Amino acid sequence: MKGVKQILALSFILLLGFSCQNKVKEQTVAETTTFSDYNEPFRPQYHFSPPANWMNDPNGMVFHKGEYHLFYQYYPDSNVWGPMHWGHATSKNLIEWKNLPVAIAPDSLGWIFSGSAVLDSENSSGLGTAENPPLVAIYTYHNNVKGDAGRIDFQTQGIAYSLDDGVSWEKFSGNPVLANPGIRDFRDPKVTKVEVDGKAMWVMSLAVKDKISFYSSSNLLEWEHESDFNPAWAAYGGVWECPDLFPLQSPNGEQKWVLLVSINPGGPNGGSATQYFVGDFDGETFTTNQEEVKWLDHGTDNYAGVTWSNVPDADGRTIFIGWMSNWDYAQVVPTEVWRSAMTLPRELSLYDEGEELWVASNPVKEVEQLRDEALTIEGEEVALENELLEFSLKPKAGDFSGTFENEFGEILVIGKREDALFIDRTNSGLTNFKEGFASVMTAPSMDLR
């Protein structure tokens, strides 16, 4: 890891930087949440989790009329993975979430796998009007009947649209809009609007086995293949999934493009993880001068993350959220009413280290709403009055560690040892539900400035 801004993320954010710890206020759940009281054992208090049952990848993230829409892979009938639907929640501040009914459910074409959503502001699809342009969701149909029959063309891309600000969704009568060319893994479309030589076009990044395929469209309904990306040196420990393509400004003011690719398995500490590439995109082809794998996180609990579309230019942020779990143990995590949560939303940016560009992740500023009073400590033991905690570290030169312990003897240790940062959760509580969960996760060390 070549910069202080890359995060070793687990079920909390480690902000490298030790001077103060901030007690945080417990989140108030929106009154519209009726499925659960959000006070069950292990229930996160300021990470989004579904009211009940199974959740995995974040999907269809779009900002519209003052609200952040978060759709997600959801199985409403069990707390383990099953026939996928799109769950739905909205927030005005990325902290307090309002749970809504299932947005998109399976049909004869298949289950509803991961995808994205955009505001078709010019009504290029013709699915709305100039006065009421549609929100358009682009997702993968997973036809389990075809798959069970031994066919490999069981994944196609479909769309649905909303004319009431995302409350209800109508599937396009001409689905699928992108047929399967005879490839087993053909999924997770992330669509963004790109301007090339003053002309706007829609670009789809699609995970196709062990590569990312780029498609273009003028209307979201008809798609043309443009190019593929799969450099020889990238991480190929498992199937490629859930791509995202977006521009970021480099420190020198130049616009660069970042491509996120989730991979399972093959992460640096086992199981699921997300690699990224920094380069250029001309509307057809993504290129990079990068020659080594770079990981968005080195921890094991951030997967399939993508960014919100349509965030206003006046805001200027690229906002990301990921699934806070790992396919190595996601289905056996010891929660009962629900299973899984999302990471804290993050702002992504670029920084340079030497001659290379790296992606920085920082919790969004809205998280500060949860803070109460600040407490500064140095070299002493302190009792906490609140179960919720945010902290930052300013270690002196050399190795260091910090230990968090409760009355039950549960211990979490973070620190730096020789050339590696580490988080040790081997004795952090109920950890024996899956071999490998109770582990010490490490990340290459760096200049701790």
From TrEMBL:
Ranges for domain Glycosyl hydrolase family 32 N-terminal: 47-358
SUPFAM superfamilies per the UniProt record, alphabetical: Arabinanase/levansucrase/invertase
Entry-linked CDD domains: GH32_Inu-like
GO CC annotations on file: cytoplasm
UniProt entry keywords in alphabetical sequence: Glycosidase, Hydrolase
Gene Ontology MF annotations: sucrose alpha-glucosidase activity
Any one of the GO BP annotations: sucrose catabolic process
UniProt keyword Repeat, yes or no: no
PROSITE patterns in the cross-refs: GLYCOSYL_HYDROL_F32, PROKAR_LIPOPROTEIN
Family: Belongs to the glycosyl hydrolase 32 family.
Name of the protein: Sucrose-6-phosphate hydrolase
Species this protein is from: Cyclobacterium qasimii M12-11B
